[in-house]
Amino acid sequence: MRGATIFWIVVAIGVVVVAGTLDVLPPTVATHFDAAGTANGWSSRRGYAIVLAVIGVGLPLLIVGVVGVFARRAPQWINLPHREIWLAELHRAEGIARAREHIWWLACVLAMTALGTHFALLGANTQQPPRLPLAAALGLIAFPLGCLVMWAVTWHRLFRAPPGSPP
């Protein structure tokens, strides 16, 4: 399945989940926590939903859009491994197509991270006072970090020099 399809599926699930659970949150939502898990930053429900949408939908679409514009108008500005090969006339169309497709997987990581953040904050805000458990905080760090490492490794594999290319 393509990254864009997965992205929109995650966004649709996120919209349904957030819309269905937003009223479970208190009117003032604990949105930031210190190293001990104690709430030290708050937002209105509406403000929280807006920030979540910006991070989970707006930012990924901005990144995909910027890469799309550069791919069409200034492909030399896209940083690709073996760029001299992938941006040469012989491989340019394939290189740009690969970059545009793969950037959607980065969008998926951001959307899933926003959804994971929502689940963690739902749990944290059910406690009085609100508290983010260490396991949830570590998950919010480990999941996107692990995904970004996998994304970067895949990016470099995707843009290996084609067989028979000069070293």
What do you see in this structure?
The chain has 167 residues and is mainly alpha-helical. 66% of the residues lie in helices and 7% in strands. The radius of gyration is 19 Å and the shape is elongated. The two termini are 32 Å apart. The mean pLDDT is 95.
Characteristic terms for this protein:
about 5% strand, mainly alpha, elongated, about 170 residues, two-stranded antiparallel ribbon, about 65% helix
Categorize the overall geometry: elongated
- Widest β-sheet, arrangement of strands: 1-2
**Class computed from helices, strands and strand pairing:** mainly alpha
Biggest sheet architecture:
2 strands, antiparallel
* Unreliable residue runs: none
Q: Radius of gyration in whole Å, from Cα?
A: 19 Å
Number of strands: 2
Residues in β-strands, percent: 5-15%
- What is the mean pLDDT? 95
The percent range for helix content is 55-70%
Total helices: the number is 5
H-E order: HEEHHHH
Distance between the termini: 32 Å
How is the topology of this model organized?
Blueprint: H1 3-21, E1 28-33, E2 39-44, H2 45-73, H3 83-86, H4 92-124, H5 134-158
Antiparallel strand pairs: 1-2
Helix pairs in contact: 1-4, 2-4, 4-5
Quick structural gist:
This protein is mostly helical. 66% of the residues lie in helices and 7% in strands.
